[in-house]
Amino acid sequence: MAMAFSTYPWRNATWRERVDVVRLPPSSIRRFMAVLRAARTHGILILNGFSRADLLAAVLVARLHRPPHVVILDPTWGRGENWADRAVCRSVLALFDGDHVHYGVLTEFEVGTFPRTWGVDPARVHKVLWSCTLSDDELSAARSTGGGVFAGGNSLRDWDLMLRAAALIATPVTIAAPNLTAEQLRSISGNVTAGPVSAAHYDALLRGADIVVVPMQSRDDRASGQGTMLAAMALGKPLVVNDAPGVRDYVRDGETGIVVPRDDPTTLAAALRALLSDEALRTRLGAAAEHEVHQHFLLPHYVERVLKLMDALPVHRTATLPNLDRVRARALARPKD
């Protein structure tokens, strides 16, 4: 079994038994050096796709004569808005990509789109479904109802869809979003409150909502919204989401939430009215959603999925980094989590 090293310091017994970890800030130079040293002694490096230190270290690891496997988790990178941006993004990825690099994407949709978007071998792209990121204390904290319809988040949200649907219902709708345009703000109907909120207020709105909506853009390169969906489900909130890419990896229509067509505000509004008028349906969907998270989408489940991917990789001989031997050991310490 190959020794593994990770920059994810998850507090999970199975993880700690199998993986050496480093607990340092995502952009720390010490973290960067720890990853490089680990490449000498570990057959697998498990890195954070949003850490600059991790990706920079991956660039140097790729230049080793015999690099270890590198697993990059959550590589939900934007490809840029024009051909120049896309060319730059691909050029950066090419600096660390190679036969030794594997990518853990969050949806079945991205298993197909990631190789096309980034020009990598499909055999090195793997589905590793995300988990709810709420802590045990957050999961057990008090919840309530009476807050009406709540929609929040930032990444790839379709606020035009949400605003058009909200105008078709009478119930109060709260939209917690920092990126609404001036035109969208002008279109807000009388039952809607919208704008940026603090993290604490966001949490309170989510916990007090009667229904949570996650209106997603339908992109052809990547999916998003998994964290918001799973948080709402974990809190027992009935969820409504449009049928954007990747949604059905997490939500079963009519069982753990309601999935409506992608660009249909009328159907979204009808789903909201149906839920608002049927307390039993809200209770059933919310309970089923919470059960689904506890059965499949907590951190231990994600850890098991990562370990399964790790175990599927063929064992590599460890690499050597002779040029790093003179780096002081204390700068490269790998504390156990």
From TrEMBL:
The lineage of its organism: Bacteria, Pseudomonadati, Pseudomonadota, Alphaproteobacteria, Hyphomicrobiales. SUPFAM superfamilies: UDP-Glycosyltransferase/glycogen phosphorylase (SSF53756). This is Glycosyltransferase involved in cell wall biosynthesis. It comes from Methylobacterium goesingense. It comes from the Bacteria.
